[in-house]
Design goal:
This protein has one domain (about 1-105). It is built from four helices and no strands. The chain has helices at about 1-35, 40-70, 80-105, 110-130. The termini are far apart. The chain is about 85% helix and about 0% strand. α1 runs antiparallel to α2 (about 40-70) and α1 (about 1-35) packs across α3. With about 130 residues, the chain is mostly helical. The chain is globular, with a radius of gyration of 20 Å.
Length: about 130
């Protein structure tokens, strides 16, 4: 039974990894393409990117599921799929962190958080001084 659950979760983890990579890799390319077509609304671009990335991920995941089901007997459950997607996304985030650490790159999130904190502190100072 454990083997069936692990095999069922493997396809969901693969989906999570593929979905995270699609989101990371496809987003910038598609955003540039949408702007060339004259679509500049940020919400529309985000929605289109998310939809296309998810559709591509679902296509790849279902293809992998069909392969797994033809080769192995697996146990499928929505909870396993949800956990697998979360685990796959965490694996991609961990891989990015390790890559940045090894390559010596500064993650873009840290300066964003510092900037956000400074902006909030400045706004707080303005409110208190009024």
């Amino acid at each position: 039974m454990i083997k069936l659950i692990v095999l069922g979760m493997m396809s969901a983890i693969i989906f999570g990894v593929v979905d995270a990579f699609n989101f990371l890799l496809v987003e910038d390319t598609l955003a540039a393409m949408w702007k060339r077509f004259g679509l500049t609304d940020a919400q529309s671009i985000d929605l289109l990117n998310s939809g296309l990335s998810s559709a591509l991920s679902i296509f790849i995941a279902l293809y992998i599921d069909v392969y797994f089901l033809s080769q192995f007997k697996t146990f499928k459950h929505p909870a396993l799929d949800a956990i697998g997607v979360i685990v796959g996304t965490i694996l991609v985030l961990t891989g990015i962190k390790v890559y940045n650490w090894i390559a010596g790159h500064t993650p873009k999130l840290t300066p964003f958080i510092v900037t956000l904190h400074r902006s909030a502190a400045q706004m707080s100072g303005q409110i208190h001084s009024s």
